[in-house]
Write a structure and sequence with these properties.
Helix content is 58%, strand content 0%. By secondary structure, the chain is mainly α. The chain has three domains: 45 residues, no CATH class; 36 residues, no CATH class; 44 residues, no CATH class.
């Protein structure tokens, strides 16, 4: 049975049981990660309101400390939530495969070298790469 949590906040996530979250299609591992993030916010280890005032590197250093938050998650957060202009999620398989395909790259170093040419607008390049990846596979393109 699905549980209606009401407004999704760090408090509601923290108080919800793992079983209730599982019943709402949240995997066991994601429950651990959501609770870790919620607790970090509630215990003031991280302040989401101030992240927009920080550099991408400062945001990355703060978020990486939280269990379940890795570089891909941080990159996507920087791009979509904080609107940072120079982010390319090189941990994203679609991004990597598209760069490999379009630029005949075979190593991570070559991929990084290509992506560095797009500074300081690597976020826009990421959007184009995702769009290309989806179009080529006849999948619905992203809408921003």
């Amino acid at each position: 049975m699905k549980l209606f949590l009401g407004e999704i906040t760090p408090t509601t996530i923290s108080k919800a049981s793992s079983e209730d979250l599982n019943a709402n299609s949240v995997s066991r591992q994601k429950v651990i990660y959501l609770k870790a993030l919620s607790n970090a916010i509630l215990e003031k280890e991280i302040d989401l309101q101030t992240l927009s005032l920080k550099s991408s590197d400062e945001v990355r250093k703060e978020l990486i400390k939280i269990k379940g938050i890795g570089n891909w998650t941080i990159d996507v957060y920087l791009m979509f939530s904080l609107h940072k202009e120079n982010v390319i999620p090189l941990g994203d398989i679609a991004i990597k495969n598209t760069i490999k395909e379009l630029y005949s790259c075979s190593s991570d170093e070559q991929i990084l070298e290509v992506s560095n040419k797009w500074k300081p607008y690597r976020t826009m390049a990421s959007f184009f790469l995702w769009h290309y990846y989806l179009e080529k596979r006849n999948r619905k393109p992203l809408v921003y």
